[in-house]
Every structure is written in C-alpha cells, then in structure tokens.
Give the backbone structure.
Amino acid sequence: MPDAIGQDMHDHVSVRADGGVAVVTLRRPPHNFLTEPVLRALADIVSGLRGVARAAVVCSEGRSFCAGADFRSGDGPDPRDHRSYETRTAAFYEQAARVFDSPLPLVAAVQGAAIGAGFGLALACDLCVVGERGWFQANFVRLGIHPGFALSATLPRAVGPGRASDLLLTGRRVDAAEAHRIGIAQRVAPAGEEIAVALEIAEQIAAGAPLAVSSTRTTLRDGLHDAARAAMHHELAEQAALARTADAVEGVHAMLEGREPGFQGR
C-alpha cells in the first residue's frame, strides 16, 4: 500500500490517501451540487481505492455537504426537460449504484446541508458524521417528484419505516441533533470539525484486521447494493412519469426562484 497519494481526478472531485485512510472531497462550493460527470468521478475514485486505503472519508468544501442534483446544469437531471430527464437520471443513478458498491468503508462528513441526492450520498456511506449546524432534507415532494438516490430503501433501513414516511412525505428538514437521535448520523461534531471526527473513525476502521473488517461490513450491508439498485430502478420510473406533470415543472421553477410552489395536482 502506498504511504501517500494525492490526485485531482476531476475538476470537482479530489482524493488524497495517507497510510490506510483516503479523503475524497467534492469541490463545487458553496453547495456541491451533483451532476452525472461529478458523481461518475466520485464513483471512479471510490472504486479505485482498493489496495490504496482501508477506509475513506467522503467530504466537501463549502457551506453545504451536497445540496442535491444540479438543476441549473446542462448535465443535471431536470424535470423541466422531460424528454431527456429519464436518460440523464438513469445515467446519474448508475453512478450512484457504483458508490453503493464501494470496496471499502466510507464515512460521510456532513457540514451544512445534505439535501436530496446529497442526503442519498450520505446514506450510501457506512457511517455518517454531521456537524452541529448540519441538516438533512429529502425535499423531493416539495419539487413535485418522487424520492431518489435509493432513499426509498436506505432511509427506512436507517430510521425505520414510520420515521422514513415522516421525512419523505413531508420533505421537512432534520437538524443534527434529531439526525443523531433517529439514526441518520452516528456522531455529531462541533462545527468545523466534521472531517477531523470522520477521520478519527476511518482511522479506527483502518486499524482493524482488514479481512475481518471486510467480512463484517459484508454482513452489515447484506443486500444493500441490490436493494439500492432496485429502488433506483423504481424511483426512476416514478420520477420519469412525474416529470411530465405541471407540478414537477412548478416545483423546480419555485426552487430556482426561491419561492413557495403552487401545486395543483396535475
């Protein structure tokens, strides 16, 4: 195993490994919105860490961990363009599935907001550290679309079906304290120390016997990859259908314009 590597794999994603721990950083501040190329770069890095590190921290630069898919980008899955929405979203979810298939444990370090796909990315990791000012939101119904990034599978697994229904059907925010209490995050860190705390956890994981860690992780994540793929397949179909509705167009327009949507059920 190399002692240290440092590399910018993409304009908006970087990786550095020192000893047994890698740090994978989203670099699209302030909000680190995801597009398919950015998510592909992240998945490429994570997939390539086998033999380089024994655990990795997934973090970001800026105010938010990740505020979701980038509806402003030509690469983003945008319900306002329903003709290309399904194709782009399918490609986006294929890269998300590769993150779920990470060959080594991932610890998310969440500062600020983790919204939509950002929330999904945090739950794709094995463990999550949230800063005391961090928060989560599955805001899909407030955009007029179905939840995605396998949250319909991972959120019930993390918090139970009742709490998942609360968060997915209301689209409300969950602050750091509640996220820790209900099982979304395993640690709460002081603001600004999210990465340091996540690194401590990753180092503890990396100090364990590699074969035992891998075996234990396989048991804990049994069926998760297949469940995530199946969930995203279903989510894609529902999202593609809803992308043709007036409510989806209104929801995205309202979000981009910073106003409350006026949904009409059509």
About this structure: Residues 1-6 have pLDDT under 50 and may be disordered. Strands lie at 4-10, 13-18, 21-26, 55-60, 106-110, 113-115, 127-131, 135-137, 173-175, 187-189.
